[in-house]
Structures are given as C-alpha cells and as structure tokens.
C-alpha cells in the first residue's frame, strides 16, 4: 500500500516557554490519521524566519506529501510564517488580490480601514491560494510546491478547526486517495508490562500490517494496568486486525489478566 | 548574556496519531524556561531507531547545551530511545551495572525475576549514567557527549516529573549557571490585535531585552481581547521589563482599551 506521509509544524514562542499547550498538533494529527495519513513528525519552532524556513524545507527531505503548519499568521511583526514559507523555496511575497479581498471584506464590514498591519495578511508566496478563515481575519495559505501540499493555518484552535474543515479537508479529499483507518483498544489489569512484552512483540511479528503498542497506565509493580492499542490502515488489513486482537485477548487470558475491551476492531470515525 | 539553549524530544507513535496529548513537552518547557533556558525547539518522532538517532544528532547541529527526551524507555520491543541515542553517536550499548542493580531491586522487592525484557532496561550507551526512577521501573539515562547534556526520561508524565525533580534538576543546578526568568502578563479588551500591533512592535524595538508577544483571545472583529505577555531573563533586565510594561499599559489606555493586569513584572517561580 502507498501511504501518504504528513508533517505538522507548530510555530510560536508561546509553545516553547510552556505557556500554551499544543492542542492544535494533537487535534490535527488525529484528523490526519483518520484520513489515512501517517503523521511522520511534529516540529515546534519559534517565530523566526530562518527557523520556519528550515522547518518547511525539511518536509522535502523527509519526503512527506503534506505539511500543515499552525501559528504566526496574524497582523503583528512577529507573525512570520508566510515569510518563512516564501524564504524556504525562494518565492517572492506578493500582494494576493483574492486574499486582500477577503481581508478587506472582514474589516470593512465593521467599518474599519485597511492598515499596513491588515494588508500584511494578504501578502502570500507567489503561486499560493488564500484559504478563507470563517473564525478570524487572517486567511490561511495553500501552496503546492515540488509535489508537496503545504497548508498554512492560523494559531487560535477555533480558527485552525474552522479553516481545516472548510478548506483543507475538501482539498485533501480531492487530491489524495482515501485510506481508511481502523483501530482496537483494550486494557489488561494485573499483568506487568515487562511480563506481557513478549506477547506484544509476538503479535507484531505475526500480524505485520497491524501496529501494536502497549501503554503502561497503572503502576508496573503493584497494580499494573496495560492499555493495548492496535491500528491498521486499509480494509484489506481488517482480518489481520481481528486476528491480532484475538491473539492479544487469548494471551492476556492465559496469563490471568483481567480484560476490558474499550473498542472492538472497527472504523474509528 | 550567554544563554543556555535546550531542545525537547518527544518519542512515541501515540503522539503522532492524536491518541496522546503531549503534556510532557509542555511541562518540561515551562520548567526549563523557569531555570533560564531558551527552549529552541520541540520535536516529536516515532519509535524508530534511525528517526530517534537523527533527532539526537540534530541537537549538535542546533548547538544546544541540553536535550531532554521523553518516552521509549520501557521493556517492550518498540521502546527504542536508548538504542537511538547509542546509534546517534556510534556508542556501544553495554549492560550498566548500576542500572541493572536499580532494575533488579525494583522487581526483586516484589519477588519477580529478571527477564530479558527487564534486563533490556539496564543496557545504556557507553559512558552514560542511570537516573533513578522513583515512580517506575525504567531508569532514566544521563549522557554528556560533545559538551551536550542528554537526559533521557521515560514517557508516563508521573515518571517524567519524578525523574526530573530527583535527578535532572540537581544536575542542571550543578552544571549550569542559573539565569532568572521574569515575566508580566495583561489583557486588553476592546482593541483589535491589528490596531495594537504597531505598539507591540514599537515596544519590542524600544526594549530589546524584553520579548513581547500579543495573543488574540477574543474575536478580532466584534469583541477583541488581547493578551500581552512580556518576558526577560536576568535581573539586569528587570528595569527594561518594567518600562516596557508601563509603555504597553499607557498605549492601551490611550487607545481606550480596558486593561486587566494578570501578573505585574516579577519572578515567575
């Protein structure tokens, strides 16, 4: 199967000083996974043009097909994401007529003039398209460059979700073949992770198309609780997912674990 | 002033599929900032030896003095962080006597034997020291290599906090000169971010040692709420922080904003 690889880039000093929890990357990685993407990495960098440019460039090296960035799109001097994207690929920043119309419309509907700070939000790298922001004023940016789809979104979570749903999702659905994501989840009480480890390894070796991971949730020594998460992509791997799930259940039973099935093998959505 | 730069590396597929929110990186970046570090970047990669090795190596290129990783330290086959660290610097993985003693003690106190999965947690890159894990069984790892301090911590947040406080913090306090962190925080109601932007820029230009950032919290058009965060490092920059704070207050008042001071300039801790 040909997987689509994605990278998430979070931009903003507030994420690096422990002020803001990066819920955007968490939400986006879930959405992309459900759409069949393998999220390859998440990178957080500060509001610095050359840092941002390097991060966008690294997407080409990592051979991902899609990049979504959040943050640094606003009217202030330290909102530098678009400049970073332009620098990454040596593209000029040009005043985009469509973006300017979107910005003008937002402000003029409130009787506010176009100032340099507002016009700044309409400068995009040559070849980009603006994405309407139904929850804010800064338009998102879509650029397809060297075969990679770059989506540049604002920072506030409400705006990220709005732009993703209105503009990003439809483009992804049009441009990429959908691969379904399937998962199963169960917890096992009473078996330390180190005791169950050989069975997890064995399951992963038997069912190669299933990704199996155990997460220690309780206290390894004393009251162990192990969460086992199984995932696969593509309907053709559904039977392997079911067999792997049965194998884990059986192994846990044999060792005397108490099992709670949280999610039977099935579609996530 | 000579700043100490740090990098945080989060390891685990669960962070890339949207299953787990990366609270570890958020907590650690706050702790490091309070100790005077500039957190330069946060990177999340999957449980893959070569990905982990590249990420550790990139710390050398980024010229950071300290790296903290979380995740991938347990007894299962897909806990590969230590192997990744060893590969990054071509160090052999050796059975560390001190680490083995720590692991043995934990399990034997419960009458559990040393199995290959448990012994695995005592293999460290040559030259490393184990860090006791008061909240779990996998020891952390400390390696000083090419002048960079690498701290490899487990994944569960409870264990991250325990190892950080018992082992990492004392080493940092011994090895790095402490630089104090100061901040101020206020919100301004009634002024759109795009209108206040020139004042934020002006403040940043006047008070070079202060980092000023505005975060839109309300709705730019309609009910704007702007949070302004000011930070600086080192007691010698305290007066600039106070002046910058006054400048922001005065500018917001002049524009008719409603101001709420959330934190006067002062020590964060």
What does it look like?
Chains A, B: Residues 7-174 form the MoaB/Mog domain. Chains A, B: This is MoaB/Mog domain-containing protein. Chains A, B: It holds the Pfam family MoCF_biosynth. 2 copies of one chain form a homodimer. In chain A, the strands form 3 sheets. In chain A, strands 2-1-3-8-7-6 form a 6-stranded mixed beta sheet, sandwiched between helices. Chain A is built from 9 helices and 12 strands. The mean pLDDT of chain A is 94. Chain A folds into 2 domains: 4-175, Molybdenum Cofactor Biosythetic Enzyme, Chain A (3-Layer(aba) Sandwich); 181-267, Alpha-Beta Plaits (2-Layer Sandwich), CATH 3.30.70. With 269 residues, chain A is an alpha/beta fold. In chain A, 39% of the residues lie in helices and 29% in strands. In chain A, a hairpin with an 8-residue loop joins strand 6 and strand 7 (140-145). The radius of gyration of chain A is 22 Å and the shape is elongated. In chain A, helix 3 packs across helix 4 and helix 8 (193-206) packs antiparallel against helix 9 (238-254). Chains A and B meet through helix 1, helix 2, strand 2, helix 8 and strand 10 of A and helix 1, strand 2, helix 7 and strand 10 of B. Strand 2 of chain A pairs antiparallel with strand 2 of chain B.
């Amino acid at each position: 199967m040909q997987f689509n690889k994605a990278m998430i880039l979070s931009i903003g000093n507030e994420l690096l000083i422990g002020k803001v929890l990066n819920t955007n990357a968490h939400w986006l990685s879930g959405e992309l996974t459900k759409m069949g993407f393998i999220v390859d990495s998440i990178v957080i960098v500060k509001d610095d043009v050359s840092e941002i440019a390097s991060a966008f460039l690294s997407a080409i090296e990592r051979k991902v097909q899609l990049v979504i960035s959040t943050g640094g799109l606003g009217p202030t001097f330290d909102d530098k994401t678009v400049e970073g994207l332009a620098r990454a690929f040596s593209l000029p920043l040009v005043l985009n007529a469509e973006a300017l119309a979107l910005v003008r419309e937002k402000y003029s509907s409130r009787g506010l003039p176009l100032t340099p700070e507002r016009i700044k939000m309409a400068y995009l790298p040559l070849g980009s398209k603006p994405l309407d922001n139904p929850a804010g004023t800064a338009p998102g940016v879509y650029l397809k460059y060297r075969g990679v789809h770059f989506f540049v979104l604002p920072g506030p979570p409400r705006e990220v979700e709005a732009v993703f749903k209105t503009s990003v999702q439809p483009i992804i659905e049009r441009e990429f073949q959908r691969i379904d994501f399937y998962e199963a989840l169960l917890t096992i009480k009473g078996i330390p992770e180190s005791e169950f480890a050989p069975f997890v390894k064995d399951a992963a070796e038997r069912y190669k198309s299933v990704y199996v991971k155990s997460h220690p949730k309780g206290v390894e020594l004393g009251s162990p609780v192990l969460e086992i998460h199984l995932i696969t992509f593509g309907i053709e791997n559904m039977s392997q997912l079911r067999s792997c799930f049965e194998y884990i259940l059986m192994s846990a039973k044999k060792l005397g674990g108490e099992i709670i099935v949280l999610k039977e093998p099935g579609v996530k959505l």
